[in-house]
């Protein structure tokens, strides 16, 4: 289990298919920290916390009327990683749609963007804002 005790920013959104999203997140490299499911219907994620090994995390739950957050998608996130090409390739192999192929940027760093199975926009890059 990844230590998330020092993570202070959690990107948060709701999803239509929590099982598809958790499979995609695992394929990309996120690790499950906690996932709480509905007692009556295990397909429904009430609350989930998934960590990025380099720091940071996301929280999500199934999109439903009684959720704390609903209808948030599509969302967008930028994920810093020392090997964005590998994360990009894993995302595409897990079903992501390429929005912007991997490329070197004039401002420094290398990155690319995809849409996950829910239509959320993910950019992966090694550019670390300073």
What is this structure, in a nutshell?
The protein is of the alpha/beta class and 130 residues long. Helices cover 16% and strands 38% of the residues. Strand 7 and strand 8 form a beta hairpin.
Describe this structure in words.
- By secondary structure, the chain is α/β, with parallel strands linked by helices.
- It has helices at 18-28, 84-93; strands at residues 10-15, 31-37, 45-51, 57-62, 76-80, 97-104, 110-115, 121-125.
- A four-stranded mixed sheet has the order 1-4-3-2, with helices on one face. The chain has a four-stranded mixed sheet with strand order 5-8-7-6, with helices on one face.
- Helix 1 (18-28) packs antiparallel against helix 2 (84-93).
- It is globular and about 50 Å long.
- The chain starts with 9 loop residues before the first strand and ends in a 5-residue tail after the last strand.
- The relative contact order is 0.20.
